[in-house]
Amino acid sequence: QLCLTEEQLAALVQGLPWQRLGAEGVISML
């Protein structure tokens, strides 16, 4: 598992196309 700070996580979230991944894609990445 990756250890990210809240700032790193926020930057990652903003940089990814969540509309394409969808909720299932996001969960599978965690």
UniProtKB/TrEMBL annotation:
It comes from the Bacteria. This is Uncharacterized protein. It comes from Neptunomonas qingdaonensis.
